[in-house]
């Protein structure tokens, strides 16, 4: 499923009015956890501090949303907010030009901008200068902003920089021993705050937190490290993954059960025909040999006599040609889809690959065991008259039924074994995958590729990709889900680098890093 189709199906599947985890959503409400105290601190420092204020945090920590909340929470009559972006305009000229345009200043220089700030102060208006993506500012831009923050005795703007932590080192190098700026570091959400944040986002789109289980919320929190931007991405991926899994379970339930039923019915038909043929073979008689050892002979109901096929004492067929009509097991097995061998390639009893026992000859007296018996003349040539009268007269009922009847009756039961072997094989594969995840360090990361409700699909994907692809079984909404992962990495950064090197076809599914500990937790819950 492409990203576009996944986006369209995502909203319809969950009956959402919009994507709750998009960067910009309609009717956005500021989430106060871990951010409301910072917002109040910024307002306080803007009023009483003369320092440039710096808000730092990693990508996805909510710096831009905090800046939006700061602008929205100011009194528009007493504060004029000027928002500047350092993306693509990180030098002093680019930053001052944006500030001058917003303040309606013709000359984009620090002194001209400060004069306009003083004029606005005389009318009762303060100026907030807020810079997004401040880590992209070069040294000249930082020096110009520090000069604006220092201001003049008559007035000054309140300068706020929102950027990643690398910004601090650049400011320290410029400031030297002077205290020119104050840093506020954003903190990640706790797990309960993550749950409340998800609930607020989902409610805004017309859904509820019940879309996620407690285990999923824990997984989202751990995978995102509690940063709101990462929470948005991981939660959205989890919902799309659950949607695909549920749709696969609806569309493909028959594929996993219809085919085995056909195989079982076909094998049962072969067994029934084999048993019936064994009981309905008409020509059973006993002919004396020259040594006195009895030889049992059965004729196939084909209308004409066929040469005897003899087995040596070792139980292996002698290399004699099969003349006449073929045995009917072969075509029946072919109709059954060729299911006549076990997983290891050994023919299953009752299948077309098992040679039919037509005649069994006891070794002549005096011949040691293991030495092929030499066929005698009366056995080698067919009976002179195919009529049943002599056979009935010479053959005693008890000796005929005694050796022949038990053999076909004992063989049908093992014919059901092929249906059991795949299940045993799958169980071994799952156990091996679980043990691998259990053996990995909990602090390591794996890359989650996709989830599917069909274990056969997971096995096929892993076999096709090879390498470090593996899968494990978890339970989602009471149904099994087979999750495919890639590799094992000592850090999230290493896992992110590995994602970039994956084939384009795999990257299209938006793989994401997760901790081994979260996988082990799901495996423990599944057991």
TrEMBL record:
SUPFAM superfamilies: P-loop containing nucleoside triphosphate hydrolases (SSF52540), Sporulation related repeat (SSF110997)
Bias kind Low complexity: ranges: 353-365
Biological processes annotated in GO: cell division
GO molecular function per UniProt: ATP hydrolysis activity; peptidoglycan binding
Region feature (Disordered): 284-365
Polar residues: bias regions: 287-298
UniProt keyword list: Cell cycle, Cell division, Membrane, Transmembrane, Transmembrane helix
Pfam families documented for this protein: AAA_22, SPOR
Domain SPOR: 439-515
Keyword Cell cycle: yes
PROSITE patterns in the record: SPOR
Transmembrane segments: 264-281
Domain of life: Bacteria
Protein name as catalogued: Cell division protein
């Amino acid at each position: 499923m492409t990203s576009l189709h996944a986006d369209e199906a995502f909203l319809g599947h969950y009956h959402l009015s919009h994507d709750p985890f998009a960067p910009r959503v309609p009717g956005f409400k500021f989430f106060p956890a871990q951010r409301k105290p910072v917002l109040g601190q910024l307002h306080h420092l803007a009023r009483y501090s003369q320092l440039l204020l710096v808000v730092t945090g990693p990508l996805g920590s909510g710096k831009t949303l905090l800046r939006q909340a700061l602008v929205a929470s100011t009194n528009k009559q007493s504060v004029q907010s000027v928002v500047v972006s350092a993306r693509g305009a990180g030098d002093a000229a680019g930053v001052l030009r944006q500030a001058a345009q917003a303040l309606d200043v013709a000359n984009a220089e620090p002194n001209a901008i400060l004069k306009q700030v003083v004029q606005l102060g005389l009318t009762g208006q303060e100026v907030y200068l807020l810079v997004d993506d401040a880590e992209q500012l070069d040294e000249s831009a930082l020096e110009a902003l520090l000069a604006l923050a220092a201001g003049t005795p008559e007035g000054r703007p309140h300068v706020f920089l929102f950027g990643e932590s690398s910004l601090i080192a650049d400011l320290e190098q410029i400031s030297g021993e002077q205290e020119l700026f104050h840093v506020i570091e954003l903190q990640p959400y706790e797990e309960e705050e993550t749950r409340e944040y998800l609930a607020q986002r989902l409610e805004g789109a017309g859904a509820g937190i019940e879309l996620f289980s407690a285990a999923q919320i824990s997984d989202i929190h751990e995978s995102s490290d509690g940063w709101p931007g990462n929470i948005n991405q991981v939660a959205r991926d989890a919902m799309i993954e659950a949607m695909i899994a549920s749709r696969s379970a609806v569309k493909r339930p028959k594929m996993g059960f219809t085919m085995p039923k056909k195989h079982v019915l076909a094998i049962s038909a072969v067994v029934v025909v084999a048993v019936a043929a064994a009981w309905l073979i008409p020509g059973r008689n006993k002919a004396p040999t020259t040594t006195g050892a009895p030889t049992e002979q059965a004729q196939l109901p084909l209308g004409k006599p066929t040469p005897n096929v003899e087995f040596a004492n070792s139980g292996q067929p002698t290399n004699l040609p099969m003349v006449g009509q073929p045995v009917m097991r072969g075509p029946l097995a072919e109709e059954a889809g060729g299911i006549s061998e076990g997983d290891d390639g050994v023919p299953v009893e009752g299948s077309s690959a098992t040679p039919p026992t037509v005649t069994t000859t006891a070794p002549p007296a005096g011949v040691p065991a293991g030495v092929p018996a030499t066929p005698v003349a009366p056995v080698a040539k067919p009976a002179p008259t195919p009529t049943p009268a002599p056979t009935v007269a010479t053959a005693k009922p008890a000796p005929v039924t005694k050796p022949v009847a038990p053999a076909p009756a004992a063989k049908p039961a093992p014919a059901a074994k092929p249906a059991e072997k795949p299940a045993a094989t799958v169980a071994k594969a799952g156990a091996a995958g679980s043990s691998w995840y259990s053996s990995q360090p909990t602090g390591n990361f794996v890359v989650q590729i996709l989830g599917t409700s069909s274990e056969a699909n997971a096995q096929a994907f892993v076999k096709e990709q090879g390498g470090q692809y593996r899968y494990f079984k978890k339970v989602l909404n009471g149904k099994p889900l087979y999750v495919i992962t890639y590799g094992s990495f000592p850090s999230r950064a290493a896992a992110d680098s590995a994602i970039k090197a994956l084939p384009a076809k795999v990257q299209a599914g938006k793989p994401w890093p997760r901790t081994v500990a979260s996988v082990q937790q799901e495996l423990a819950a599944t057991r």
